[in-house]
Amino acid sequence: MASRENGTPRRDEDEVCPICKSSRYLNPDMRFLINPECYHKMCESCVDRIFSSGPNACPVIGCKKTLRKNRFRTQTFEDIGVEREVDIRKRVMRILNRREDEFDSKLDWDNFLEQRETMIMNLVTGVDIAKTEANLRKYETSNLDSIRANQARESQEASSFLEQQSFEQEQARLRRQAAREEYEKEHNELLAGRESFLSRLAAGTADDATNLAREGQKILLKKSSARRSEEDRLRQKQAALRGESKKSALGKTALLSGAGDSDVEPSLIKGLKKVSIPEPEKPYDPFGGLDLGKKDYYVLKDHYPSQWLEEARKNTTMAAGGFDIKEYYSRTLFEAFAGLGCFIDEEVAKRGGASETFGMRKGIATQGAAQQAVTGKPAEDIF
Ligand SMILES: [Zn+2]
Ligand SMILES: [Zn+2]
């Protein structure tokens, strides 16, 4: 039986399959596989034989775990204990994958790391396994969105470098291919041209020879312009490729920002920043909420008897110029009554001003209002 817990298996035991007892000495190509269910080691042919027809019990005596063939894999670490710890660590880290920028303070982040480490060690050493597993499952179900978002961020960070590298390689390959194609094309054209030249020279006269030379000049010119357009085409193609890669990157970030955190405060991890969704911006109001059509203290009439205004009302030149007497009524009345909604004592009380300045200001304001009411002219600016 393969020893799991003692940590240092003997060398010869390592080379013999505990199930079929075939040894590496006789079969140098033999590969050992393990299953993270129970970490019992067996050879590849045993796995094929026992688990090809579906899930089956582990053939190691005393182990009652049900294993599936697709979960078998090669062992990465020689020590099966290390292998198991690394697996557990990977699993826990995949679930508790919060990042430092998600915490309010460095202390919270440190506490989280310690908490995660404690959970991993509990699972590795077999302390409070049921409770830890329950906590993990609960956290996983309630924080699915944030786990997915962080996983995406991690994989994006890991892949962006590789992506860039492969993109550059692809670009270089395309450039090389284009250059090779062009060279071949040119070479073939040259050969074909030379052949036709020779045949025409052989058949023609001296005049033909000068004509042919002129034609040759033309072909050369045509070729150089063709090369230029080919270069342009290549450059455009590369620009298009670059644009596509940028677009895909943008799409990814959009996806990331779209995956918001769950609004349920996780009970397992403490000190996480609150995620606030900004309110949608309201349309701009140039009057700051003031309703110009609202009349609390007066009713606007169509006509007011006034000798002075009567002239302006009847003057057709003024009307033609755009003067509107009703507009004038409306504005003048609005301005005349505008101050009535303001209660200075309330405002001053709110401001928390001293009582003597309050009294003085009230006096001046009342005086100003009285003057305005009598003369109909606005008083001097009192402030
Ligand atoms: Zn075997
Ligand atoms: Zn087993």
Automatic annotation (TrEMBL):
Record-level GO BP terms: nucleotide-excision repair; regulation of transcription by RNA polymerase II
Keyword annotations from UniProtKB, A to Z: Coiled coil, Kinase, Metal-binding, Nucleus, Transferase, Zinc, Zinc-finger
Start and end residues of each stretch annotated as Disordered: 223-246
Any matching Pfam family: zf-C3HC4_5
Positions in coiled-coil regions: 162-189
Gene Ontology, cellular component aspect: transcription factor TFIIK complex
SUPFAM superfamilies per record: RING/U-box
PROSITE patterns in alphabetical order: ZF_RING_1 (PS00518), ZF_RING_2 (PS50089)
Gene Ontology MF terms: cyclin-dependent protein serine/threonine kinase activator activity; kinase activity; zinc ion binding
Tree of life domain: Eukaryota
InterPro entries: MAT1/Tfb3, MAT1_centre, Znf_RING, Znf_RING/FYVE/PHD, Znf_RING_CS
Signal peptide: none
Subcellular location as annotated: Nucleus
Domain RING-type: 17-60
Name used for this protein in its record: RNA polymerase II transcription factor B subunit 3
Organism annotation: Talaromyces proteolyticus
